[in-house]
Specification:
The complex is a heterodimer of chains A (146) and B (78). Chain A is mainly alpha-helical and 146 residues long. Chain A is 83% helix and 0% strand. Chain A has 5 helices and no strands. In chain A, helix 4 runs antiparallel to helix 5. The radius of gyration of chain A is 18 Å and the shape is flat. The model of chain A has no long low-confidence stretch (mean pLDDT 88). The model of chain B has no long low-confidence stretch (mean pLDDT 88). The chains are: A mainly alpha (146), B mainly alpha (78).
């Protein structure tokens, strides 16, 4: 397995787990019975959780990439070649369509009386799913060898 | 128009040249070892430039290293 394939696996798992936790917490909060529409304390709490998770993702990704690079330094130093570029392009194209669908669905929540916080989380959810699609596509394409 | 397939003789050529490793060939061509492996297994068709570079490493013309097989034409409806 090449360094870039391992990198895609690391990012996929870290982002899936970290923001999966975030969205599970947000969904529980927003969908609980009698949830107030303008819960400032709750929103600040989720912003803090989000900021913490971003820091955790960055630290984890850097640490895991360093670990993988130490185990196979020659692979880690190999430049990006034409197959890597093709895989990146194909994966980005898939993610673009996912993001577009997510963005339009998020706009649609406006007509359902969604609050700004709910809509913002919908947009962020679309970005999360698009990123997972990109990384997941990379993993699949590397397995199938593009 | 249906797509044909591209095959190659890289594996045989590597062994005929002192069991050259995939890593060694990859370094000479400027791609990763995994890309050479994918090309050998006919899972990835390289760019024309990379194909020429591979042929150049073996000192052979392109068509000796890579072969294009046209797909069988679909049966016409009567």
């Amino acid at each position: 397995m090449s360094f870039r394939e391992k990198s895609a696996w690391i990012s996929f798992v870290v982002i899936l787990v970290a923001f999966g936790f975030y969205f599970a917490a947000v969904t529980r909060h927003l969908l609980r019975p009698g949830a107030p529409h303008h819960d400032a304390a709750g929103h600040i709490g989720f912003f803090a959780l989000f900021a913490l998770l971003v820091i955790a993702v960055v630290v984890l990704e850097v640490a895991l990439h360093i670990l993988v690079a130490i185990r196979s330094p020659s692979d880690a130093h190999a430049p990006v070649d034409e197959r890597d570029r093709l895989i990146n392009l194909k994966a980005a194209r898939i993610a673009f369509y996912v993001l577009m669908i997510g963005a339009f669905l998020s706009i649609g929540t406006m007509h359902l009386g969604a609050t700004a916080v709910f809509m913002g989380n919908c947009v962020f959810f679309a970005i999360w799913i698009a990123e997972l699609s990109r990384l997941g596509s990379q993993v699949v394409l590397y397995r199938r060898s593009a | 128009m249906s797509a044909g397939t591209i095959t190659n003789t890289i594996r045989r050529l590597r062994f005929e040249r002192g069991e050259m490793t995939q890593q060694s060939l990859a370094e000479k061509v400027g791609v990763t070892r995994q890309t050479v492996n994918a090309i050998e297994a006919n899972k990835y068709s390289p760019s024309l430039e990379t194909a020429f570079r591979i042929a150049s490493v073996f000192g052979l013309p392109l068509e000796t290293v890579f072969q294009y097989h046209e797909a069988a034409a679909p049966a016409r409806k009567k």
